[in-house]
Amino acid sequence: MRKLQVQGxxxxxxxxxxxxxxLDFWEGVLGMPFIxxxxxxxxxxxxxxxxxxxxxxxxxxxxxxxxxxxxxxxPTDPGCVHHLAFAVSQATFEQAVERLDERGISHSGVxxxxxxxxxxxxxxxGLLIExxxxxxxxxxxxxxxxxxxxxxxxxxxxxxxxxxxIHLADAIEMLVxxxxxxxxxxxxxxxxx
Length: 193
Known about the structure:
With about 190 residues, this protein is α/β, with parallel strands linked by helices. The chain is built from five helices and eight strands; from the N terminus they run E-H-E-E-E-E-H-H-E-E-E-H-H.
């Protein structure tokens, strides 16, 4: 028996409202370029809008001109999607509250998650959206996941409740030391003062 090894999210498709409401939210609020549309090939009564969330992958929306925004929270029963999280820069994240407030979009306010900051609000059909911004940059040649797995190991070894900035800083130091060789025979911390 062998795995079906995935290599990333190809696309996510959501059931949206009418075409204009979908365009106004996904491009007009979240800034995702609208890259193409066509009919829903499985349902001739629906359109199918394609957006780039920033990494060249796709968020697609099925639209129907008879559907209107409902603003009720989508179900969170087991098996349902709880929320979608989109990455934003720290510069954008620092403007999120102001930019949501100016549109009258209700939100959670900023949540410090230790390794990232988050803010939550619902899209027009009630799906919870998270804007997430890492509070660290991984070292050259490493991914955020590389840092997080090391930070997790440190957190567990230290008996801490959740990943904090100290775990991230120590994980980054470990990854740099592991990844980049040095001519020094002793790479330990020093105090030259």
